[in-house]
Design a protein that fits this description.
Layout: E1 2-3, H1 8-31, H2 37-70, E2 77-79, H3 103-119, H4 135-149, E3 169-175, E4 187-188, H5 192-205, E5 227-232, E6 237-241, H6 254-281, H7 292-303, E7 310-322, E8 326-328, E9 342-352, E10 356-357, E11 360-365, H8 379-383, H9 389-395, E12 401-407, E13 413-417, E14 421-425, E15 427-429, E16 435-445, E17 458-459, H10 463-479
Antiparallel strand pairs: 1-2, 2-13, 3-7, 4-17, 5-6, 5-7, 7-16, 8-15, 9-13, 9-16, 10-15, 11-12, 11-14
Helix pairs in contact: 1-2, 3-6, 4-10
Length: 493
């Protein structure tokens, strides 16, 4: 069920502010008949006290609203949940997620793939970008510095804590997009000129991506490549057309994985189309200064996307191992660069040890113009803003609005737009042994705007060379942030 964000908290804050404004005006009107100078001074002191009282009450109320937002079940997310109750907006942590009918077959196939990787020296663990140094770091830092000099407006970079979780979590990449990105120096492709032209267009755009965020593209022309899932009328399901993942092309069990992933994406497909239809109807009511013509152009491309016959999806399968007596949290992020053109994430927690507890997946979104109550010229309603200190905070385009969270546990299955940032928070392992969880993610690509896939390239370098140049791609993604107004990383967790 798609749990829709109805934005009524903005109106609650506004109406509370309006009530306080009216309360102050009523007190002032009652004092207008007093004319003595001494009384005026005394009334001035009283007015200051009333003003202070209203400010305190406004702050208390706004804080309570903001705290309630954090306790909501995630909005703007399609949740595969048994007995979904649309009226119950609170996160109870007692939610029962639907068990996927082919779970055991899919899990068995993934384990076969992992065995193949073990036996053929293909096991890959996610590198820690905080430990990158030397030539790769110098090259990326130089590129980013040069890019910043070209901008007219400089955004002060905040000093952020380094999230070095190497001693807490170890992530095994079973399938990961970082091991098969496009790069002109490492592949052969008949479409290389077209792909390079795509990068040039994305850079020239220098505007906003398909979700209204500032457009970001790789300085080094790395592009995550999706696989094609095409609908088969004969088998009534989506099937992988061509390649899936370059390092596994010689695996004899790969056909089984392709088949099971086709079943899983078929299960996601109708809710994905429903989610896409909802967000298309929202258009682009984001709070920006860009011309209407630019937004119309973005919307026209996105509105043409249809998932009924094919889905281009970047596939990610990973196993996370959390150290004994540890708590793991990720960072706020969206998936990929704007040039990767990811529209939605379909996420499935296929396996998680029951002793991994208290983890949440949190969401936030950029404010939209329709978050504002209908504007009027009423002096009374305009004056309400004076008692709404957090109203501006919640509606400020330089801030982000909480959308609630979901409990992370086995069978969690959701779809959410790449407009909304998300973060893993507080997964606890309070035992004396490492505990694991496995996830599968489909990053759904806008195939109308970015049509290139893994079928369009031939990798000409061995896997060890690919791992080396991957470090540059990952470090660049971790450093090349959004603007300060939407301060979060294009990071990986």
């Amino acid at each position: 069920m798609l749990n829709i964000d109805k934005n009524d908290y903005i109106y609650k804050i506004y109406n509370k502010s309006l009530d306080l404004f009216r309360y102050e005006n009523e007190i002032n009107r009652n004092r207008n008949n007093e004319s003595l100078y001494y009384e005026d001074l005394k009334n001035g002191c009283k007015q200051d006290r009333v003003n202070h009282k209203c400010e305190i009450e406004a702050k208390r109320f706004c804080k309570s609203i903001y705290q309630n937002l954090k306790m909501l079940k995630a909005h703007d997310v399609f949740i595969f949940e048994d007995n979904f109750n649309e009226e119950n907006k609170k996160l109870t942590c007692q939610e029962k997620y639907i068990t996927y009918e082919r779970k055991e077959q899919l899990l068995s196939t993934i384990n076969l793939i992992m065995d193949y990787q073990d036996k053929n020296n293909l096991v890959d663990y996610h590198p820690n970008v905080n430990n990158i140094s030397g030539e790769i770091k110098d090259i990326v830092d130089k590129e980013i510095k040069a890019q910043q000099k070209k901008k007219w407006i400089f955004h002060k970079q905040k000093q952020e804590k380094q999230h070095n979780t190497a001693d807490i979590v170890k992530i095994r990449n079973i399938i990961h997009q970082s091991l098969q990105p496009y790069h002109k120096d490492y592949i052969n492709s008949s479409k290389q000129n077209e792909i390079e032209a795509y990068f040039k267009r994305m850079r020239k755009n220098n505007g906003y991506d398909q979700w209204g965020k500032e457009c970001k593209t790789s300085f080094s022309n790395f592009l995550w490549l999706p696989a094609i899932f095409k609908y088969s009328e004969k088998n009534k399901m989506y099937e992988v057309e061509g390649k899936l993942f370059h390092p596994l092309e010689q695996c004899p069990e790969l056909w089984k994985l392709k088949e099971e992933l086709g079943h899983l994406l078929s299960y996601f497909s109708k809710p994905l189309q429903e989610t896409h239809s909802y967000f298309k109807n929202l258009h682009y009511n984001l709070m920006h200064d860009h011309p209407e013509s630019q937004i119309s152009s973005i919307f026209d491309i996105k509105s043409k996307v249809d998932f009924s016959q094919k889905i281009h999806a970047i596939v990610k399968i990973s196993e996370m191992e959390i150290a004994p007596n540890s708590i793991y949290s990720g960072q706020w992020h969206v998936e990929g660069f704007s040039s990767d053109n990811i529209l939605y994430t379909c996420l499935y927690v296929i396996e998680q040890d029951q002793n991994l507890i208290n983890g949440k997946l949190k969401f936030k979104r950029t404010p939209r113009s329709d978050d504002f109550p209908t504007p009027t010229n009423s002096q009374e309603e305009q004056g309400a803003h004076s008692y709404c200190p957090s109203y501006e905070y919640l509606c400020d385009p330089y801030k982000l609005i909480p959308l609630g969270s979901l409990e992370i546990k086995e069978n969690l299955m959701i779809i959410f737009p790449n407009q909304n940032i998300h973060k893993v928070k507080g997964i606890k392992n309070m035992t004396d042994k490492p505990l694991k969880r496995k996830i599968i993610a489909f990053f759904i690509v806008n195939h109308e705007d970015q049509p290139f896939t893994v079928n369009d390239v031939e990798f000409i370098k061995p896997i060890n060379v690919i791992k080396d140049y991957r470090m540059k791609d990952m470090y660049e993604r971790s450093k090349n942030k959004q603007t300060e107004s939407q301060s979060f990383d294009y990071c990986e967790h």
